[in-house]
Design goal:
Layout: H1 2-18, E1 34-37, E2 41-42, H2 51-66, E3 70-71, E4 78-94, E5 100-115, E6 123-134, H3 141-165
Parallel strand pairs: 1-3, 1-4, 2-4
Antiparallel strand pairs: 4-5, 5-6
């Protein structure tokens, strides 16, 4: 009897997921088959080499992992493009001797989203996030890796939510 309950739950979950009413990523039915993520140029005043490639790949991977859309290099039903417009390090708190105790790395990405199947979904808007780190360290090596991971995870999820999840 215990196994029958587990089987029924799995069948129900598979039915609800495959019928187009609901899926577990939070998106409704997507009226598209393909997407493309064009290369995001780094137009920030301060250039950190390679972050534009990392961001582009992270956005592609997120969409592939959370939807059943196929990635394409051109002619996609959904098109993501834009540029990194800000890469900034700012002191957040100071010590008694006027030195930074904590710094903040902020990144802003301007995203243009085009849905060729439904132009009402199109948008262009900036997405930003930040990472705080010790004033004694520089944003290099493991500090930079941790910062970019956290910042890009948040920004790509925000872009996904705005474009496909409609949150």
């Amino acid at each position: 009897m215990k196994y029958i309950k587990h089987i029924l739950v799995l069948v129900l979950a598979a039915t609800v997921n495959s019928c187009g009413v609901y899926n577990f990523t939070g998106t409704g039915k997507i009226d598209a088959e393909t997407f493309q993520v064009n290369f995001f140029q780094n137009n920030a005043e301060i250039i950190e080499p390679g972050i534009e490639r990392q961001f582009t790949i992270r956005l592609q991977e997120l969409i592939q992992n959370q939807t059943n859309l196929s990635i394409t290099n051109s002619g996609g039903d959904l098109v993501y493009e834009g540029e990194i417009t800000q890469y900034r390090i700012s002191p957040m708190t100071a010590t008694a001797d006027q030195r930074a105790a904590q710094n903040r790395l902020s990144i802003t990405v301007n995203v243009r989203f085009t849905n060729k199947k439904n132009e009402d979904d199109d948008f262009e808007k900036p997405f930003s996030f930040y990472y705080d780190f010790s004033g004694d360290s520089l944003p290099t090596g493991s500090v930079l890796t941790a910062a970019l991971d956290e910042i890009f995870e948040r920004i790509t999820q925000d872009v996904f939510n705005e474009s496909l999840a409609k949150w």
